[in-house]
Amino acid sequence: MIVKMPQPWLKRASLALALCSTLLACRQSPQYEFDLVIAGGKIVDGSGSLWFPGDLAIRGEEILYVGELEDREKKARRVIDARGLWVAPGFIDSHSGSKPDSLLHPDSLGKVGQGVTTEVLGRGHPSRFFAAGAGPEPGPRERSGDVPPLGQVFRQMRQGEITVNVAAYVQVGDVVRSVLGEDSREPTQPEFAAMKQRVGQAMLEGALGLANSPRLSPDGLLSVEQLAELGREVTPHGGAYSVAIDSRAGTGNFVKGAMEFAEKAQIPMDLLGLRFTGYRGRRHLQEVFDSIEEGRDSELALTASISPYRRARANLEDFLPSWATEGGREKLLERLTRSDLRARILRELRRKRRGQFNAFLAAGGWEGVVLLKASSRKFEDQAGKSIQAIATELGQEPGDTLVDILRGTEGPVAVLHSLMSEEDLRYALQAPWISVGSGGSAAGGDPSGGEVPEPHGYGAFARILGKYVREEGVLDLEEAIHKMTGMNAAKLGLRNRGLLQVGMNADITIFDAERVAGPATFLEPHRLAEGIEYVIVNGTLVIEAGRPLDARPGKILHGPGKPNP
Fold first, then answer.
1. Cβ atoms of 114 and 532 closer than 8 Å
2. Which letter does DSSP use for residue 48 in this model?
3. Residue of 510, 463, 499 whose CA lies nearest to 92
4. β pairing state of 165-168 and 170-171
5. pLDDT tens digit string along 495-547?
6. b/e 503-517 (16+ beta carbons within 10 angstroms → b)
7. What architecture is the 91-310+420-548 domain classified under in CATH?
8. φ/ψ (deg, to 5) at 305
9. pTM of the model
C-alpha cells in the first residue's frame, strides 16, 4: 500500500486552523484576576475595629484585595453574594481538646461547622497524639513512654489530609513520658537534659510553645525550677507557655502559682479554661482578676481563654468525700448500707476540705447538680433535672435521693454541675485580656458507643455570637470576633492568620448574625451550629451555603521556631 504524504499547502492550512482555534479558545476563556470574590458583605476584620461594607478578593490561598471592587463578576472566577451576611476571619480554637486522628475523620464537622478554621492541639490535655509509628488512620492508644515526636505527628496528619489548619504545643507530660516511660520518679540529671533537648527539638519542629496541666505532670516528678528550665528552652524560639486551670486546687491559688512560674521562666503565659468555681462568688473572681491585672501591669505577658459554658460533666461519685469511694464502687455501696457511714458521707458533703476541692460546694448545692444519665429504671426519665428537683418530686431529702441513685445504678452516674455563675461568666467575657476557646473536641473523635461528648465542640463559637452578642449584648460583634480570631492569632504567634487584610491567608467565616446559634446542649450535644453559611480554609470552600464539602485544604501551622512552608 502506498501512503501519500500531505502537500505543503495542506500542512500550512492545518497549522493556521489550529492557531485560530487556540486564539478563539483564549478569547472565550478569560484570565481572571481573582479566583474568588466575596461581594457586598459586612466585613469584620478581626482587629476589633468597626465593621465596614465591602468586597474581599482571593487568589490562591491569599487575600489580595479588601474594599469596594468594581466589575466583580468580570474579575473573579467565582463570586459569593454576601449581602446581608457578616464576613470574618476564620475562628481560631485556642483551647481545643481535639485529637489528631479525629481531625482526619471524614465526618469531623463539629468545629468547622461553627466556623473554626484552625485548631490548636496539646493545650493542657492528656496526650492524644498518634501511637508511635502509626499511619494516618486512627491508631491504638500509645503506651506510656511511647510518645512520638511532634514532627512525626505533623507528618502523619499531612499524609491523612485535614479540613482545617492545625497547630500544636509540646506537652510537659509527653516530654516526661518520652524519657521516663511509666516510672513515677524524679529524673536524673542526664534524663532531665534529655527532656530539655526534647522541648528544644519540638520548637524547631514547629511547636507553639510548652503546655502543661497538673493532670500531665504528676506531683513530685519535676520541681518548679525544672519546669522553669523547660520553659526557658521555649523562649529563645519565641514560644509561650500554656497551662490549664485546675479548679481542684482553687482558681486563685492556681493562678498565683502559675504567675510565679511565668515570672521565674520569663515566658508569656496563657491560662486555659479560666473559671471561678467555689462558693465565694464575685469576690473570688475579682481577686483573681486583680492578681492577673497586677501581673500585667508589671509587664508579665499574661492572657487567658474562656469557654461560653458555665457547667461541666462529672460523675456523681466525684462529689463524695475521697474516703467514701476508696476501694471502688462495691466498697462505696457497702458504706451506704451502714446508717452511720451514710450519715457521715452526707454530713461531710457540705464541709470545706482543707487543701481539697469540694465539688458539691462549688456547684452551689443540689440545685447545681443535674442528672444526665443513670442506668436505673427509676431514674432514667429524670435526665435533665437537678438532684434537688428530683428529690422534691419524690418527696424526700436530696441526700436520700443521692443514695437511691447510687445504689440503684450500675456504673458511674453522669451528672452536670456548675462551674461558675452566669453573671460571673458574662463579666469574665468582657475582660480585654480574655479570648474565646471552645474547650471541646472535634465531632469525628467521638467513639461509637463511647462517652457522650460535651457541647463545646459543636457550638461554642456560634453560642458566643448568638447568645452573648445578639441576645444579651454582653459583647459587641466586633469585640467578640476579635476574641475568636485576631487576639488568638496574636497570643499564639500564628503568622498571617486571624485578620482580613491584604497578604493574609484566606481563612474566612461568613455567617448570618440573625440566625447564628449553638443549639448543642449537654443532653443533646451532637447538634451542629446554625447560621454559618460559608467557611473558607486557605482559599478553598469547605462549607458552602451551610453544607459541608469534601475538601481537605488544611495545613500544619508552625510556631515561631520553624518557618511555615
1. yes
2. S
3. 499
4. unpaired
5. 899 999 999 999 999 999 999 999 999 989 989 999 999 999 999 999 999 99
6. ebbbbbbbbbbeebb
7. Alpha-Beta Barrel (3.20)
8. -130, 160
9. 0.86
